[in-house]
Amino acid sequence: MEVMLIGIPFLIYIYLRIRLGNDISDQERDESLFQEGIEWFNQEDCVKAFRYFDKVVSEYPKSATAYFYRAKCHYYFENWEAALNDFEKTLRIDNSIAEAYLQKANCFYMLEDYKTALFELKRASRMFLGKNADVIRFIGELEFRGGDFESAEKNLKIASSLGDNQSTILLKTLFIGNIRNISKYGND
Length: 188
Known about the structure:
It is built from 11 helices and no strands. The termini are far apart. The protein has helices spanning 2-20, 26-33, 35-42, 46-59, 64-76, 80-93, 98-110, 114-127, 133-145, 149-161, 165-174. With 188 residues, it is mainly α.
């Protein structure tokens, strides 16, 4: 009897949560709300997109999507510091946007802060669950630049196994003196 008294309200609660729950994330909602600006950005009309998102940020100061696209516009205009600030604001609002970590790493790279860029890339790789070949290749490139050849080779091999052709080329050119296991990455 006690189970029925507890079970029935619980089932009603679950039913109501499913029926009345919000099925879309904040990012998905914002992307549909800001579709006009996103389309301008995708069409590379970044001046219009920047003006749009600059206005949207003041209207929706808690929108990670608005900051994210404004940051992408700053990045397009090669304004690395402003882009970096907006990517950081994006991640403070919503730290689940994996591409923001990648773009933040790109900003640090452009500012020649390779150590911080590598740190952000490793965070991005975790967010992408280690399945993004571009991120892993970029990690390998920065590790090579930093002199960690063993880790660089390992990461380039992982990226290559994920189908990244550029990693295969880098393996052949950067590690040309290191013959072991390189033939299995090429089509020789």
